[in-house]
Amino acid sequence: MTNSAPNDELQRLQAALTASEARFRELAENTEDVFYSRDASTGQLLYISPACERLTGRESQNFYDKPDRYLATVHPDDLEAVKAAVEASLCGLTTEVECRLIKPSGEMVWVRHFMHLVDGRVVGTLRDISARKKADAELARTTRALQMLSQSNRALTRMDDELQLLGEICRLAVDVGGYRMAWVGYARDDADRSVEPMAHAGHEAGYLSSVRLSWAQGAAGTPGSACDAIRLNEVCESSDLQARPGDFPLAREAAARGYASVLALPLRHGGQTLGVLALYSAEAQAARIEEVGLLQELADNLAFGIENIRSRQWRNRMEKAIAQVAAGVSMQGGGNFFEMLVRNMSDAMGANGAFVARVLPGDPLRGRTVAAVFNGQVVPQFEYAVDQTPCRELVHAPSLILSEGVQTLYPDALMLRNCGTQAYAAHRLENSQGQMAGMLVVVFREPLKESQTALLHSTLQIFASRASAELERLQSDLEIRNLNTSLEDRVQQRTAELKLANQELESFSYSVSHDLRTPLSAVDGFADLLQMSLANLPESQIGKSLHFLQRIRSGVVQMGELIDALLSLARLAREPLRREQVDLSALAAEVLQGCRERDPARVLESHIEPGLLATGDRRLLRQVFELAECIGQVKGCAVQC
Description:
Blueprint: H1 4-30, E1 34-39, E2 45-48, H2 51-56, H3 60-65, H4 69-72, H5 79-90, E3 95-102, E4 108-118, E5 121-128, H6 130-158, H7 162-175, E6 181-187, E7 195-202, H8 225-232, E8 236-238, H9 251-256, E9 261-269, E10 272-281, H10 289-329, H11 334-349, E11 353-360, E12 366-374, E13 377-378, E14 383-385, E15 399-402, H12 406-409, H13 414-418, E16 423-430, E17 436-444, H14 450-533, H15 539-573, E18 580-583, H16 584-598, E19 613-616, H17 618-635
Antiparallel strand pairs: 1-2, 1-5, 3-4, 4-5, 6-7, 6-10, 8-9, 9-10, 11-12, 11-17, 12-13, 12-14, 15-16, 16-17, 18-19
Helix pairs in contact: 6-7, 6-10, 7-10, 10-11, 10-14, 11-14, 14-15, 15-17, 16-17
């Protein structure tokens, strides 16, 4: 009886222990957590639950054979922390550490390792916390994306420089968003459809200089998330660059710089894709829907900010150009005004060319430039066929703006093709009668945004009104110059004719003088002979004969004086006029007095009106009076003054 009681108690305790161990094993073998027990002094593994095979991807026997093999499964970055926790547990401290385990397949698992010392044994558990870690990471990324969005909005309200804004967004993506590298690229409309990097931040290490990206369709385009985002105008992601290198042709360059995944966000505004915001992460992970939504909102805000800055700068340039034109109106005119106008227009509108042309008369319609600037340089005047350019629409419309595709619409316009023109704006210039007198034209290498067209149209109207007035004035000046040239030619022609007439008159005068003096000399000579023969006549006939001879001799003298007066008048006609005020009354009296002195026997009766004044050449007027007096003597008539 005495020995049976202890035995019964022992059996009961053993049965209870066996039942407890059975329940523990049932619990350990059916839970996802790993339970283990090892000898604190020898390190020998006493027990490990079957869940270790699922958690580590290795058979349990491997750990029984070599307990330290567990450390080989720990991620190298976490190994020191795990070793420190194990040492602390051996010292009797309860420790807990979170670390990553690497399965043979390469899969990584986050675990929470809890351990403590009990009766010379280290008892511990490992719990899979990968789901929580993933959720925490996703929440952290979403939170960072929200912070990025908030801080980027503040940057949008503060900055007015486009490149500084792009750089700040990239910096926020790295410093706040936790990305390894971020960059912004613009989609260019050149022949290669290239993507031009504009700003970056983070560990770039020459990556962008090694990249040649094109958003063109088909084989000419570059595969990859960044270019796909522009082509498709949607978010594109490569969550594991190493797992699917075919999706990213520069995977080797990316891996060398520690890029594991990329998220590309299109910069969208007004139905157009301006470019891309590319975010590179050091971890291969896919972004959550919430995170993508926040980041795309950030990209949309950035695109809006870019357009807002450009619009503001556009308006500022327009206002400056208008002010410069207004200030130069009073100082410039003609060709100088138009050269200043096209320069200011080209600079203000960000255009690669501008010109003012006038319409030439004739059919078909042609234009000739008054002033033209291309690529900042003044070009010589040129003519072009209006029907081959968009200017032909100005015949029926006051203005024209083509936002894109100009070369496709007007393939015969060689000038537009040579300049690489994509967009075209023109305004009709009219004269005061409302007729088309010319064109004001601006050309662009880049397509115009919708926000630019309204301001461009109003600015062209302002410039066109002043240009129309100046063009009409220039045309009037040209007509006046042509008329002056014609008048000068006519004056030269009439001068030559007058000179010839004077020469002919002089020749005629000398010829007449010679022809008249010859018979006068004969008459005078025969008169002398007759006078000498009078000595043989009776005295009664001599008086009457002498009277007749004196009349003949007097007529010869007067005719000689008349000839001398004609020659003198011809000589004076070749000399320049000397205009002065002449007293005609006094001049007539002098001429009559000379007549009396030359022929005292002649009785002259005269009546001269006193105080007669005139403006003329005194010499010529005196010659006219003397000539008139001589003619009067020849005809035997009176001269009235």
